[in-house]
Amino acid sequence: MSLVAVPFYQKRHRHFDQSYRNIQTRYLLDEYASKKRASTQASSQKSLSQRSSSQRASSQTSLGGTTCRVCAKRVSTQEEEEQENRSRYQSLVAAYGEAKRQRFLSELAHMEENVHLARSQARDKLDKYAIQQMMEDKLAWERHTFEERISRAPEILVRLRSHTVWERMSVKLCFTVQGFPTPVVQWYKDGSLICQAAEPGKYRIESNYGVHTLQINRADFDDTATYSAVATNGHGQVSTNAAVVVRRFRGDEEPLHSVGLPIGLPLSSVIPYTHFDIQFLEKFGVTFRREGETVTLKCTMLVTPDLKRVQPRAEWYRDDVLVKESKWTKMFFGEGQASLSFSHLHKDDEGLYTLRIVSRGGVSDHSAFLFVRDADPLVTGAPGAPMDLQCHDANRDYVIVTWKPPNTTTESPVMGYFVDRCEVGTNNWVQCNDAPVKICKYPVTGLFEGRSYIFRVRAVNSAGISRPSRVSDAVAALDPLDLRRLQAVHLEGEKEIVIYQDDLEGDVQVPGPPTNVHASEISRNYVVLSWEPPTPRGKDPLTYFIEKSVVGSGSWQRVNAQTAVRSPRYAVFDLMEGKSYVFRVLSANRHGLSEPSEITSPIEAQDMTVVPSAPGRVLASRNTKTSVVVQWDRPKHEEDLLGYYVDCCVAGTNHWEPCNHKPIGYNRFVVHGLTTGEQYIFRVKAVNAVGMSENSQESDVIKVQAALTVPSHPYGITLLNCDGHSMTLGWKVPKFSGGSPILGYYLDKREVHHKNWHEVNSSPSKQTILTEGSLYEFKIAAINLAGIGEPSDPSEHFKCEAWTMPEPGPAYDLTFCEVRDTSLVMLWKAPVYSGSSPVSGYFVDFREVDAGEWITVNQTTTANRYLKVCDLQQGKTYVFRVRAVNANGVGKPSDMSEPVLVEARPGTKEISAGVDEQGNIYLAFDCQEMTDASQFTWCKSYEEIADDERFKIETVGDHSKLYLKNPDKEDLGTYSVSVSDTDGVSSSFVLDPEELERLMALSNEIKNPTIPLKSELAYEIFDKGQVRFWLQAEHLSPDASYRFIINDREVSDSEIHRIKCDKATGIIEMVMDRFTIENEGTYTVQIHDGKAKSQSSLVLIGDAFRTVLEEAEFQRKEFLRKQGPHFAEQLHWDVTEECEVRLVCKVANTKKETVFKWLKDDVLYETETLPDLERGTCQLLIPKLSKKDHGEYKATLKDDRGQDASILEIAGKVYDDMILAMSRVCGKSASPLKILCTPEGIRLQCFMKYFTEEMKVNWQHKDAKISSSEHMRIGGSEEMAWLQICEPTEKDKGKYTFEIFDGKDNHQRSLDLSGQAFDEAFAEFQQLKAAAFAEKNRGRLIGGLPDVVTIMEGKTLNLTCTVFGNPDPEVVWFKNDQDIQLSEHFSVKVEQAKYVSMTIKGVTSEDSGKYSINVKNKYGGEKIDVTVSVYKHGEKIPDVAPPQQAKPKLIPASASAPGQ
């Protein structure tokens, strides 16, 4: 069905978020809050004034209290005055506050009155607007009825008339037609429809008040034809025709300009009155961007006159649609520029953009295409986003969404689409369809009436889901029929009221049935039903119920049983394919359900629109250096086409790329962004809402080049010589030849002050007869296959008089090549007039543009007609001139050259030198920018090469080579190449002796080839003692041959010499099983492969032969040894991290019966664990290695297959290496130096994992080596190394270093023994020394006493011991820690101050107890306790432990009593 356009109320509807439902409440709350805030501020100000007055009163009272009695009366008088002033001030403040409050209340009342007035005015305006809209709808209906009454067929009042015009003139055809409805007019040329888009700017079609015109701009000879105009409306068709004859004034033709896109822009209806002249200075070009990026299209222009208050109007068009500002686009016009900015690009923005500057002087426009490609997909392989999302046919709960499909050139096809909706004011997107919809159209239901929505679409293919499309414009869910039900009722005077049509229907309870139920849209997935509301319908809100029935079944099924429909449209889904259905609709309100409507005709769910057929033939034609025009025939079936997609592919590949990312609606497209000189193929596919057609047939291969045009104009006309009757002129060739070689030039001349130009030549010629003494001016035009180009500007005035000066004339034809960042090469031609003597040289001058003085490049003349100018500034523009010199002086300077910008062109290429497959030396150059008219010009010393004996030039396409036939020293020099009909593409190459030598060597290798060898002839000895001779060539063909020669005698493949060749790898080898003394000599391999050959030799004589023989014999014996159990790795040693020596060997070819033994000096060495032969590794640990571990260590293997042994002797160098390895481990793990004080002195210690005196260690004091002496003793233990400083003094202060050497590195540990560290250590040493002296001389018991004594009553007990001390100690005996009173019963005896005894006579039971002896002098002493146990006669001896020597207890020197 034809989709309904968005009605006016949708365009003007303001889309609010959900908060608009509480606007009135929010306004009342704001008003209440403002009043509350005002009252609060007034009360706070009042309280503040009261508080300040009370503070002042209190301060005055306190002040009065301190006043003396003499001044009391004076103070009271002052207080009364102040009280009076204060009361007066308070009354003024109160009056001012009351006035302020009254003013505020009046302002508030005035504000409330204004608010109420504004509300009433707003309501009045809304009511007036509603009435106006109602009347407009009513008038629209009446207008439709009136139009039906006045309808008539078209009638031509003024017919077309024929015209005859000159070429390049414009012609306008006019005719007048009337009819109703307004007829549609189409123009035809010789029966073919005229399309403005086919030739932009060629035709302009207008229609104003029944007058239709066709304007043909710049008519040419091909526009001679019969033109027809056909006017058509719904009631008939009429036509008129006329002939147009175009006559040619002269034989030249207009150049063929670059074609553009077929877009016809509508003429502006409003044109500024002032005449403006518009000149574009900078224009935007073809632009390529990606979705999500930003871009600005900008043109700068010169507007004349420049009026600040009056400006022409700037209009932007995309394709043929006027662009308006939105949240996506921003426009600016002023200050000499016009710009269109995109903040976030989408593919919707792709198209041909045209800027039109409209004024009374006409329209100035510029167009260029903006390409927007897909952003990177969220999932690799996912399609691009859909585009051009539109909403149609909006209603209370229903809207139709349409879009255009993305191009899937490189992705898998689109399987369907998901449609999402979002309520305006929220960010909650809801997916509308559960399964992807197949076509680009979907009816969205379930909307809430009165709310606004936006929509987006996502495409789905096998790889994933695309990015979402650009969101649609907001659309409100409103019923368009509500406004139609409004009616205006006229009252007395000019008053009228607006009422609903329902008010005139009377009291209607149950509504009538809907009418005109029909299928407005039929698809394979759904059917959209439409109907008219019932009449009468009643005042209550209506809902609808839809019922369906399969044709022939007789049963009805309600479709929307759960949810009633409020809109007179509904999309029915889930219909069975291939079956026909009928439908009916029932209306309902709160009073009840209506009768069913009339039944629709049978409807079957099927696609009414099919996929379009493929487009027809595709033609590609040249356009510019980077673009191609692609045209195609429209498809045979083009139902509801959305447009076309164009794809391109580089010829020879199958990698297709999209050319446009948005469907184009015409069958002609300019593809931009192509590579110059590359060849392309194109194809096209058509697109509609159902999907894409098959790809069209591929176009022919086309090379990207500029289209053929006439050449540009020559320039720089100069006079080179004159003999009085003729002149010799020179000029510069056109900058662009138009893509075709220039065939010649035509000259026109005229005498000064004459108006008419006269042809000098009907065909190119060199001279003509002129009148001597006359002044002439000339102009020149070039010609090629496309025609004659524009003539040059008139030359200067040249006087025809003979040249007789002795100096040479001017040089001419100044050209430039090899323009780089800081240099260029300048070339010129010798003067035609040389003067009275030959030209001997030239001076070259240059200067910056607009500079004053000329600067001479060369201080001495150059005989060459070229010069390389260096040391120029990059980015600066220069001009040059040349002065010729002969024997008579410097001649007239040449004309100033054209300005040259010193800057290298992007992508500049240089000449490369090389050698081809036949060995020929060449210089090569590539040019991607050349055209059909371009030619390569090779020069040596900047003179064109014409020597066919020494050089050969080959040019294929854009690649040219210069071959040196017989290269030698004569070919040294500077070679250059230039490409005509380009923007100065040129390069040079200096062939110096080194480069020529390199190229000739490479050429010789190719012409006299040798087989390159990866490896020369070498030998290899196998495990069994076999000797293999081999070499490897880089490459061998299947036809290659070879032979082995030993001592000048060729050997062949045999059991003695096994020879073979692998030509795939290039390896040639010979294997000898037994190598003996007879095999001494020279071995040679010769290879032939076509023309190439190679040879390699190996000499095995003398020591070299004996080395090979011994190694072969050794390998043979090793092989025999390895047949039984053997050592894969011989016995060797290492040192573990714990500083243990480990002997390790690896065994192989063992079995369970194999016996392994460790022996030392042929004596079995017992180990704690047996070695595990299955693991293949055996080891023996030697902890704390010392000289006692010297000896021969042997590991043996033995079983029934044989035996093997491995020996390692630990002695001499092996032992020393072990000590060094242990030193390395110990040195790395050594601790910092530590201080230990002893009675003898200060000891420095370094702890290590293991230390032995055989390690190479040094102690240093102040970087001086310390030798062991009585004062400083060096020693160590297994855990540490130490240095003992005996009786330290002040001289022993300083830095001490301990150093251990591991054979490579020194491991050092240092300590600074000075300052506080030395003082603390020395003090501790003194204490320890004193303590040691006291310990040595204190009192002590040498002969010990028993700890327990058992004796029978009546016996005599004698306890005897030996004491020592210096001085002699004091001896005291105690019983139970009490002094013993000496008597006859207890006696103590001391002899020679060291023998002490105590005797108890007649021991009784009372004598049992603990006896103690204290031995003490001034340095201290010790105490021993003895327990005495007495038993009676006849009693059993008590069981006590055997007596042991009593342990003494120390008594410090300060102790004075036993208790202490």
Overall description:
Helices cover 14% and strands 41% of the residues. The strands form 25 sheets. Strands 90, 92, 93, 96, 97 and 98 form a six-stranded mixed beta sheet that branches. The longest helix is centred in the first third of the chain and has 79 residues, at 72-150.
Tag the structure with descriptive keywords.
1460 residues, 8 helices, mainly beta, disordered C terminus, six-stranded mixed beta sheet, extended
Question: What would you say about this model in short?
Answer:
With 1460 residues, this protein is mainly beta. It contains 8 helices and 98 strands. The chain is extended.
First-to-last CA distance: 124 Å
- Beta-strand residue percentage: 35-45%
The main pleated sheet reads as: 6 strands, mixed
| Principal-axes shape call | extended
**Which residues form runs of ≥5 with pLDDT under 50?**
16-29, 48-71, 250-271, 1455-1460
- What is the number of strand segments? 98
> What structural class should be given to the helix and strand makeup?
mainly beta
Query: What level of helicity do the residues show?
Result: 10-25%
Q: What is the overall pLDDT average?
A: 83
State Rg: 60 Å
Summed up, the helix count is 8
